[in-house]
Amino acid sequence: MSLLRVLIDVAPTAAQAVPWALYDAQQRLARSGLDAAAAWPAADAREAVLAASAVRLAHVVLPPMPADRVPAAAAFALEDRLAGPAQAQHLVAAPRQRDGSVIVAIAARALLAPLQGAFDRVVAEPSAAPIPPAGTWRWYASGAAGGFVRRPDGSAFAVGAPAREGPVPPELALPLASATRASSRTRVEVAFPVEDAQLRAWSGAPFARAPMWRWDQDGAALAAATDLLQGEFSRQKRAPRATARTQFRWAIRLAVAALALHVGATTIDWAWLRYQSWRVSRAIVATAHDAGAGEAADADAAALALGKRFADARHRAGETAPGDALPLLARAAPALAALPASALKSATYASGTWTFDLGKLDPLLVRNADRDLAAAGLATLSATTAAGTRVRVAPAAGTERP
């Protein structure tokens, strides 16, 4: 099966010439070129490769959690590190690693929308570049304009093309200065043609040569990259083909009968649970109506109305409600008091939720704090940020009443 990959940094037009590369079924590069869409070679599948100038790879560290919660937790950890409005960005998180590391690709929704129907997959150009060793940043040239730098944690950011004679681009100089202040001096490897005099003239870090790299040289790396067509941009999967008939007909019939029995029993259990859930939901709605909380459309709305009515009654009596700032903070205070004195950097309350920004702490202290908060009847969500750890605290379900 042949595969065509097209490198783009903006939504392509019919007349725009863009780099392309054609691969065989073994991900070997067959040929490449620079043409408008009408001149692209025919292929069984098409993939778009977002140039480094159109996508960023960020690195976050998350605590153990179910895989389906990783995207939301990663977005929460990155909400203060996004350039521009969050609603204009599309975030796709790679699977969480053993050490908690998650690589998150960030691209503009406006760019991905027109690609959804034209390509089978969309991947990020920097994700195909090798990750450098610890203590080293590697500067690659993009197949489009400029280039990008990949760091040992897997993150990557775009960098402008270097001047023939002059300092390194500011997109690289500023992060280098910040890294030098935070830790030991960083070495930068340059993976594109550059003169020796230019290497010696650049400042801010030791610069050295690295093997040349092109965006289309490693088809296997592009195939292993995370597909950005996820969430709202995911393509509808084709239904799997029916399996071929086999000679073990009796075994298949027995398996079908066992499956039918299992499905029947599961359906009965499901129906009973649905009936019980319906009775409970009806009772909650009726309770809300009898309490004067109004007509609720469903049990969730009724529970919210009851909680609001309870809080209003407490306030009218001159008393606090459990979701108010001070009672909620009082429940969280013992867990926070167990942390070092300088750990708490800021605390923000909004809509029944406290958000605590903590400094860099031992992971054991963070886990102990989460355990103590849960023991106090609080639901928590924590994520590692560039400055330390951010913890969001709210009353756990069933603990809204004193």
Which short descriptors sum up this protein?
alpha+beta, five-stranded mixed β-sheet, 24% strand, Nucleotidyltransferase, domain 5, single chain, 402 residues
Overall description:
- The protein has 402 residues and is an alpha+beta fold.
- The chain folds into 4 domains: 1-129 and 213-237, 2-Layer Sandwich (Nucleotidyltransferase, domain 5), CATH 3.30.420; 133-212; 249-316; 325-395, Hypothetical Protein Ta0175, Chain: A, domain 2.
- 31% of the residues lie in helices and 24% in strands.
- It has helices at residues 70-78, 109-112, 170-182, 196-201, 219-224, 249-290, 299-316, 325-337, 363-375, and strands at 3-8, 18-23, 29-35, 45-50, 55-61, 89-93, 101-108, 121-124, 136-141, 147-150, 156-159, 187-190, 207-209, 344-350, 353-358, 378-384, 389-395.
- Strand 14 and strand 15 (353-358) form a beta hairpin.
- The longest helix is centred in the last third of the chain and has 42 residues, at 249-290.
- The protein is globular, with a radius of gyration of 28 Å.
- 26% of the residues are buried.
- Mean pLDDT is 86; it is low at 238-244.
